[in-house]
Amino acid sequence: MDKLYIFLKYFFIVVWTVFVVAPFLWALTTSFKDFQSVNGGVTYIPWVDFEPNLEGWKVLIKSPAKGGVDIIEPYFNSMFVTCTASLISIILGTLSAYALSRYTFKAGFVKNNDITFFFISQRIMPPIVLSIPFFLFLSSINLLDSLTGLIVVYIVLLMPIAVWIMVDFFNKVPREIDETALIDGCNPYQAFLKVVLPNSIPGLIVAGMFCIIFGWIDFFFAFILTFTEVQLLPVKIVALNSSVTPWWSLSASALVSVAPLIIVAFIVERYLSKGNLSGAIK
Amino acid sequence: MAKIDLSNISHSYNPNDLNPVYALNPFSMTWENGNRYAILGPSGCGKTTMLNIVSGLVRPSAGRILFDDKDVTDLKTEDRNIAQVFQFPVIYNTMTVYENLAFPLKCRDFSKNKIDERVNSVAETLNLQSFLNSPARKLTADQKQLISLGRGLVREDVAAILMDEPLTVIDPDLKFRLRRNLKEINEQYKTTLVYVTHDQNEAMTFADNIIVMSEGEVVQTGSPKELFERPNTTFVGYFIGSPAMNLFESEVSSNNSVKIDNILIKTQTNLSNLKTKNIKLGIRSEFIKIAQNQNENLVDVNVEKVEDLGNYKLITAKMGNFTIKSKVNRETEIPNQKVKLHIPAEKCCVYEDNKLI
């Protein structure tokens, strides 16, 4: 029975690992192939099935004048927009979440839970519904096709995630901690900054991770709200496609674009495990 | 350190509703500087609300709070200089034990030397010296509670230390030692200590004044002896003491005697001005003994069971339709089923409408 269990366990782990890793391996080998190796039949192993070359990677950093596509600028644009928007969303989201968790608000029939739901409801709507209002809004304040405009839009999209995660997190931090801090002589701001916030670092990291992921992978709004002045990475990658699909450079750029998320995942992985989250509270 | 006056305090958590429910009915009380008080009562009787009102976490619906005759009702918690320890240990997880203990002083901008001196002295009192540099979250539940307690003690000038069932999570052995520590601290620093509990033994051994509460009402305030011997209401008689006070439905028979099932019991209470004839007679089982050579207030009872509870024996017997309990010395021989018990007149309490006459 035990042996069967162990066998099945590892069997499924292996199957799942293959399922997850295979696309990456596929992209990795493809990125070193040329036209002939991709279109001339199935090839797997470098140096045996095909001769690897760096063309797919070189194209990414060559300037367009020399026939390249130069994803470096869009890469840093994406990074700047994602990090700035995530940071602002986390700061604003954490403050609102703390207020929603600790104070009672009431305006007619609208109470704390309704306000929290209002934030989340922003993410329930299909993005297409928001695209026209956002377009008109940004064009009215002259921020279309600009990094600032994108940051504004991304804050709107990311803050609900931060609020949602942090409200839940603060609700689990015992109120007595704030009360004790007040009794010990902090004012409410100090109690929040010195006591509650340090206790909420795992929550902040999880919220931050979600913001970064959702900001980084967004294609839709980056595509609709920018044209020539500013380009983000997902838009640039899609633009790589042409009449002859350059699988090699597409694969290379896909790997490059996933890399930051993999690094983020490794850093926050330990905070995602349940034990760490609950251990931080009690 | 301060004298704390609670004047006409009352509190409701839904004051704007048509029928507000009062967690605390109006009462006035003074806590003298340097005394030890215990607030005793069943769960949900308003004990914690009372503490939170004093510390400023809750603003009372009505009434004023004065520290040394200075009105602090509108003062914020952080400006009241109160220490409060909660039922479950509240520690700052991200700090070391030292930083936890130093926090209240840091918030109040004490000098580094002063902080060092106070933290070390408190750590010594609470036996925490060897943990000072460990992360507070790594300690056991009772050590964590010691830290909460320590944060209360670290400020010398604190108006009062309020404790909300602080020893619940601590094991019995340490509980006993800590209670003694608290007493010593109180005697040494003359800090006013207020201790909320639902455990009467804890209250009796700790406090020199006990405030008994029931359903948002302060029922009686007094020394442990007063509460034990002269409970103001049948509730206090029932709630304090183990076993609870013997209470008998009775009728007034003369100026100072009552009848329980036709048995005449003399008391030292003047019963001439009573509105009703139906009253209750209360007597502690500790005062009821097997009759020796007394010649009045004797009752014949049928012994139902005798429990040996270590340092005393508890007799449960039937007196007519009533059950009577008597605590006697362990060595006392209980003759047979029929026993004569003596009820001393000076220890009898008579209650009209459940209130002491």
Protein model, in words:
The complex is a heterodimer of chains A (282) and B (357). Chain A is mainly α and 282 residues long. Chain A folds into 2 domains: 2-53, no CATH class; 72-279, MetI-like (MetI-like fold). Helices cover 74% and strands 1% of the residues of chain A. A two-stranded antiparallel ribbon of chain A has the order 1-2. In chain A, helix 4 runs parallel beside helix 7 (147-172) and helix 12 runs antiparallel to helix 13. Chain B has 357 residues and is α+β, with helices and mostly antiparallel strands. Chain B has 2 domains: 4-234, P-loop containing nucleotide triphosphate hydrolases (Rossmann fold, 3-Layer(aba) Sandwich), CATH 3.40.50; 243-356, Nucleic acid-binding proteins (OB fold (Dihydrolipoamide Acetyltransferase, E2P)). Chain B has helices at 47-55, 97-107, 112-125, 141-153, 172-189, 200-206, 224-229, 234-239, and strands at residues 4-12, 22-31, 36-40, 62-67, 70-71, 83-85, 161-164, 193-197, 209-214, 217-222, 246-252, 257-260, 263-266, 278-283, 289-290, 298-308, 312-319, 322-329, 338-342, 349-352, 355-356. Chain B has a 6-stranded mixed β-sheet, with helices on both faces. In chain B, strands 13-12-11-14-20-21 form a 6-stranded antiparallel β-sheet. The model of chain B has no long low-confidence stretch (mean pLDDT 88). The chains are: A mainly alpha (282), B alpha+beta (357). The A-B interface holds A 174, 176-177, 179-187, 190, 195, 198-199, 201, 280 and B 55-57, 76-78, 81-84, 86, 88, 90, 92-95, 103-104, 107-108, 148, 151.
